[in-house]
Amino acid sequence: MNLDKVRARPFLLLMISDAVESGSLTPEKLAQIESQLVDMSLKIAKSFFSPVISHDLKKSCSIVMGVTTLGLLKLCGGDTLSARKILLDDSVITCFRKGWEQVNSLFKAHGSDADRATLLTNYQYKDSEHKDIAAIHETLLREQLDVNLLIEIAAKFKNPLSNMDIYLDYTDEISIKADVQLSVFETLMKRHAIGHQDYDDFKNLLLAYRDKPDVFSAEFSEATAVILKKFGGQISLRIEGWFAGIEDNFKDIFQLFTIENSGPEIYISIFNEILRGNINAKKFMHAYESLLKTEKQLHPNLKEQIEAERSFEDLLEAEDSDLSHEDILSELSHNITDDNYS
Amino acid sequence: MSQQIAVLAEKVIAITHESGRNGGDILEEIASSEGDQTMIAVLSELDIMSVAKILREFDATIPSIAAWLMDPETIGNMLDVEPSYWEQELQKGAFNAQDSVKSMLSQIFLTQSDDEERELAILSAIVESETGILYLSLPFIGLDFDAIDHEEEATSGSDEELLLKIKSLNTSIYEEILATAERGDFEKIEAILKSQANNIRVGEISNDTDDMFEPL
Lengths: 342, 216
Description:
The structure holds 2 protein chains of 2 kinds.
Chain A (H helix, E strand, L loop, with lengths): L2 H4 L4 H11 L5 H22 L5 H23 L3 H10 L2 H19 L5 H5 L12 H24 L16 H19 L7 H13 L1 H19 L1 H8 L2 H14 L6 H12 L10 H5 L10 H22 L3 H9 L9
Helix pairs in contact in A: 2-5, 3-4, 4-5, 4-6, 6-8, 8-12, 10-11, 10-14, 11-12
Chain B lengths: L2 H16 L1 H15 L1 H10 L2 H9 L8 H5 L2 H10 L4 H7 L4 H13 L6 H13 L3 H6 L21 H11 L1 H13 L2 H17 L14
Helix pairs in contact in B: 1-2, 1-3, 2-3, 2-4, 4-6, 6-9, 8-11, 11-12
């Protein structure tokens, strides 16, 4: 069991008070440590927060406590003897600098636009509590690196058929997984040389997959192996775990489609299922046009989206030929009364 | 300093700590009951952060008596540290540093009976500071300078009124403000003023912690 946990104080303070009790830390050295901690807190306050707000000052003190403790733990590896030696022979500034290296790695993971002041608040450590500050740091860093990895995966699997990435904050694992699933499916289509408008072949392939799950499974593992090989490294490690779920999801989807429907209808339905309804309507116009008359009502949303796309394009064209911005503005300004009567 | 002044100053500081507005009201009370001289004596005993906190609570419509009676040098020093308070309001939201500076400057330059000599002394004290021109320019970033009518009297309370007042006091400072405001980036200037104020506030920190952010 760890000392700092039992005594509910930061490791740094425990090491200092033990050294004071044993007499190895002189009052002079203690005063120096205190003044350096105060100075560093003021510098944190003025660089990241405000030195006139008392809660900002308190926050800065606890950040210095957290970062310095983190650094000391890193330097001594949890060994109390070596920790005491560092405090006596070196300084708390060295501890802080070691801790700041860790903080910097988190800053870096978040990119240059990140709000560093907000990130720093994660390192607050009050003098009368116990926290596993090293584990907190590791978690923060790991989570952010995973977010970065997901963003990278999302970029690699970006697909024009999918509308999943229209959301600015595109790190939602479910959406990215859907794009990966889409990529697997396109690999399977390619394997059978089925293009995006070969609706009848498409339908036959699905029937075959539905009726022979073993064949599908075998082809699925080959397709995913190709994808894993293509990306390699961390990306492969991260997406590998998704494939079992994706395979099951495919099998569910194959049970869902209505065999009586036309190739184009099945084509739309399948992609709609894979992408959880977030298909890019533009890319499905051809299939929609090829639907049987009675099937069109099965996809009212798609119809609306296609119509919206069209009217938007009409608008763009109209803008080119019509009045320019300036013309419209000057037209409008005729109707505004001149109230500049000073 | 007499005992009376010390006691009063301590009282004003304690009240200002709670509310800058109440601090200003107390100063006003002192001026009306004990006379302007006593108030000025008390004012000179206050720390600069308290003075700044008081003045920030007032503006051109309700100016603080302190703004009228403070000596130019103190006003210059006070404006140097005033940006330290911005962060607090930014955190609360709905705060704009441009409006805040404008309200401070209007209170100082637009509410007193025209004592140009004093106003010029204040203006000179402000530009003495390294960041004085930046402070004076901040309210005018984004203003359409070409649209200013230099002949007509500006609308009361407008940006133009304040700018033209400064121009009437000292044209070369006015030119500097113009150049800075036209070229300047609002966020950068805001950050410089804040950091300068924070440095003054924190004062001389021993420099043996200067390398704290350096990699080990």
